[in-house]
Amino acid sequence: MKYSYLVLLIWCQTIMATPTDYSLSDNLVIYSEKLGYSLQYRVLAPLNSADIQAAQIMFVTDGQNYLQDAKFDQLLVSLMQQNNIAPVIAVFVDSRDPDDLTINRRHSQFMCNADYAGFFQQELIPVIEQRFRLQFSERKSMIMGLSFGALNAGCFGVLLPKSFTHLAMQSPASDKHVKILAKVYQQATVSAVKMFITVGTRNDNTRAGRAFHRQVVKQGYDVSYVEVPYGHVWDNWRSTLEQIMRWFAPYATTTKAVENANETY
């Protein structure tokens, strides 16, 4: 009898400790009236309805590269299952033409394109709201990207400051475009968006990234800033993904503080 009770107790504890499952969808295609063409995206989401209702929402541009080169979905699942971050719904937006993957539209999409921002606000976000039966405006939300995608995240901070509470900008590029973005911010009203900016110290538009960081801090934005000893490569961007996620979606009961590894320069 004691043996049976022990087996039952272990079995119950195992069931209770089973991590929440998550699912990454296949490519989903959406036609954009704003842009005049179709786009595709994939969604990583908890399967548990309670976690869905508690989830923060993040959109990742160049989503196909974050999945292939960073295995970002696997990192997110690991962090969530270990309670290192709160539940998130991650939308990986592909910058390529769904009908011809050799055509990449990122250069036209990411340069403070008001129609691209309109696609998110008026078309993509409502689809996500309907799919998961949630209100986007009632939770934290993040737009993130790297290189030109980081520039796009910065642009969304001006074009859609009420839609996205957090901007994650990994290696914003190029020098010329970052300087243009800095001028855009100089002319815009300071909003409540929070920024996480990462820059590599080896041929990674470092000087322009530092200058932009100094400017937005002076303007009064809430900014976390990290420099890493890499160039404009995936070793750079992979190295800060966990820190970005702990900043955006810290687990509610954790006592761990997000390290803000500001560099002296």
Automatic annotation (TrEMBL):
Name of this protein = Esterase family protein
Pfam families annotated for this entry? Esterase
PANTHER family the record matches: ENTEROCHELIN ESTERASE-RELATED, IRON(III) ENTEROBACTIN ESTERASE
In its UniProt entry, the species of origin is given as Rheinheimera maricola
